[in-house]
Amino acid sequence: MSARRLPPLTALRAFEAAARHLSFKHAANELSLTPTAISHQVRQLEEHLGVRLFERGARRVDLTPSGQELFTALRIGFDAMARAVDAVRPGTQPRAMVLSTTMAFASRWLLQRLARFAQAHPDIALHLHTSDEPVDLHAGAAQLAIRYGPASYPGLNCEPLLPSRFAPVSAPALGVNNLEDLRRVPLIGFEWFRRDADTPDWPLWFERAGCAPLPRQLQFSDEVHAIQAAVAGQGVALVNLALVADELQSGMLCQPFGLELAGHGFHVAWPKAHDADAGIAAVRAWLREEANPLSSQATR
Q1: Which of 38, 46, 52, 83 is the most buried (most CB within 10 A)?
Q2: Which phi and psi (to 5°) does residue 182 adopt?
Q3: Residues in the chain with pLDDT < 70?
Q4: Residue 259: left if φ>0, alpha if ψ -120 to 50, beta else—which one?
């Protein structure tokens, strides 16, 4: 076999931690380094690859499309390495469980909360499986899943986690305040994995707003990139408000229009045959707590 052409592992670890936390400071704490060292490692990796991996702001960093692609692959690889190392260690190990979800939900909601799960449940090693294609829970590839959809899955129990409301959002600096302003800024869209008559996209939004639709100038393959483009001030994106709650609260994004479209909710699903599984019950209870704003604020 030919040798693998990989950048230094230390740089990959620094990037993966920074991408997971969206923070050089938090990555430094995790790896027992300084934020300057993390930044240096990431810069070296960007120079090695010849691409920018982060958009660096005054108070936070966001992944570029190239950074998101690399992060997804590294997260899967490091999780697999961690499971392999755990499997060969002697002694009692935490129970490994796999939670499957979409790439958008993982990166925009779940990843920043996983550290709290590890603190609350040291007896469970929770690993993420991210894919927009639903995983077969009956086959054992994952023990439970967070799915966006109508909450009807054969052989699975299902409980609601988060409702979904879709609305246009933009960076405040764009100065979008009324429908006429939409004519002077790009509209950002993304590809839906599955569509139906009520898919909350721009044509439906304009229809409900009672005006003629405008063409989309920016189209992305997934919602994560659409959100990142909106944060960067590239236009107005119609996205799930649950996935931009932090940006709306901090003022990085604003919601200039009151009209919202209802979408399918996010649900937790698990096999009916494993309804009595204590580990699955623990993950479900933690997810419910995190999804409850009052509960999650009390734990921070």
Answers
A1: 38
A2: -65, -15
A3: 1-3, 87, 89-92, 293-300
A4: beta
